[in-house]
Amino acid sequence: MKNMILSHLPGTFPWQVHWFDTIDSTNTQAKEMARSGAPHGTVLIAGHQTQGRGRMGRSFSSPKDMGIYLSVILRPDCAAEQLMHLTCAAAVAMCDATENSAGIRPGIKWINDLVVNKKKLGGILTELSIAPGSDRVDYAVIGIGINCGQTPEDFPEEIRSIATSLLQITGKVPDRSALAAAMIHALMDMDSKLLQQQDAIMDSYRKNCITLGKEVVVLRGDEKRYGTALDVDYCGGLLVQFTDGSQESVNSGEVSVRGMYGYI
Ligand code: BTN
User: Fold this and answer.
1) How far is the CA of 249 from the centre of ligand 1 (A)?
2) What is the C-alpha to C-alpha distance for residues 192 and 187, in angstroms, rounded to an integer?
3) Ligand 1 centre distance from Cα of residue 264 (Å)
4) What DSSP assignment string belongs to 17-33?
């Protein structure tokens, strides 16, 4: 599989790709490799994850050979606060990759879900480590899962009604190695403009974000607040107009957002 992925990338390709038939989580393993000094551009891809992880402590269903489960280690030379838009940048990159490789462009459900036909096609989990005693980034891990060949029965019962795959959308199983290569290519492109082009990246994010203009429920612990999603700020916060008239920029670290009538 690794050679098939590399065959879709330029010969001079500077990043390093590691393939795992099975792994607990490419993000967990990427963090371990980063702590041991793995360089910028180390990519991990697995055929199967036994403990795939999502945002807010959720799991990510990762059945064998049915999706792309990919993480990359980045080591940008910057302060952590300059990377607040990283998840948004990765989400736009994954829309590009999916469109280029599979011919359909997902929308983005704030902040990190890739959505087609109101169902979740994939998700992104970014994890950041700060160098001790400073505000500088030591490493960032971006993990992406995209569902490719799953039929509804391949998803756990509890997410079956809200999850989809490229097979279900297009009627055919995509070339997973070509999709993985397109994802790596899009991540390299994102990396090259991450710090210099934040405004342009966030403009693309807003264009692709299907949450904007929608009535939403903001969930923080047991608290539920209702409002309308107005905008996404330059670092990825979601500006919500609540029904009591107040406006607040909500942060992805603390809250999750649902549509008023379901997942979207
Ligand atoms: C989410 O849905 O909240 C994010 C899902 C992220 C899943 C990917 S799969 C590759 C990488 N390894 C993980 O354990 N998670 C990410």
Assistant:
1) 25
2) 9
3) 19
4) EEEESSBS-HHHHHHHH
